[in-house]
Amino acid sequence: MAITFTWSVKDLHKITATGAVYKVEWSCSGVDEVSHSRSGSYLHTKTVNVPEVTETVDVEEVTETVDKVTGFDDDGNAVTESVTRVVTPAHTLTNKTPAYTKVVQATPDHTASGFTPYADLTEADVLAWCKAGGVGAKNEALITSNITNKIAAQVNSTGMPW
Predict the structure, then answer these.
(1) Residue 54: pLDDT band by 50, 70, 90 thresholds?
(2) CA 23 – CA 45 distance, rounded (Å)
(3) Strands 62-72 and 100-105, how do they pair?
(4) How far is 101 from 40, CA to CA, in rounded Å?
(5) 62-72 and 4-15: which strand pairing?
(6) What is the pLDDT of residues 108-121, one digit of tens each?
(7) Where are the alpha helices (DSSP H) in 11-159?
(8) Cα 159 from chain centre
(9) Inter-residue contact 100 to 47 (CB < 8 Å)
(10) Looking at the DSSP assignment, which residues form a beta bridge with residue 66?
(11) Distance between CA atoms of 117 and 123, rounded to whole angstroms?
(12) Which one of 46, 57, 145, 155 has the minimum C-beta count within 10 Å?
C-alpha cells in the first residue's frame, strides 16, 4: 500500500507592516485505495524559561479558651477554671513551583538574520516550518493509520449467505 501525501498551505497570517508570518493554515491529504486528510495550523513560537517561584505564608497561632471542670463544691456544683490551649501552632507554609520551560506564541523578528521577506517565501519554505519538530511525520502517520483502518474495514464483512 503506497500512500501519496499532498501538503498545501491554505492561508498565511502576517503582520502587514513587516511581512512577518506568525500563523500558517495547512492541509495534508493522503491517497491510496481510500483517502483521508488532516488540516491544522502552525503558530510561530518561542521558548520561555520560567524561573522557580517560592511562596511563603506565615500562619499565626490559633488558641481557644475553655472552662475545665476541676472538681465539685460542697453543694455539688462544678468548679471550673479557664484554660487556654493551642489549637494550631504557629507555622510557615512554603509552596515551591520548580523552574520550567514553555513554548508560547511569538511574533517573528523581521530584523533577525535568516528572516525571509514575505515576498520571497515559497510554499516549500512555509511547509518546512509546519512539518518541523515531527509534526509532518506525526500527521502522515495518523493519515496512514486511518487509511489502513478503512481498508481493513472493507476486507471484513458481515452477513449471511441465505
Answers:
(1) very high
(2) 10
(3) unpaired
(4) 24
(5) unpaired
(6) 888 888 888 899 99
(7) 123-131, 135-155
(8) 45
(9) no
(10) 83
(11) 13
(12) 155
Q: Is the pTM of this model over 0.70?
A: no
Cα 37 to Cα 20, 29, 42, 61, 147: the distances in Å are: 28, 4, 16, 64, 10
Which residues lie below 8 Å from residue 115, measured CB to CB, with a gap of 6+? 20, 108, 109
Indicate the range of 49-63, 65-79, 86-100, 129-143 predicted with least confidence.
129-143
- Alpha carbon distance 119, 6 (integer Å): 24
Residue the block writes with cell 495550523: 41
* Closest to 41 in 3D by CA, of 26, 20, 30: 26
- Of all residues in the chain, the percent with pLDDT exceeding 90 is 43
Q: Around 107, how many Cα atoms within 13 Å sit in the side-chain half-sphere?
A: 10
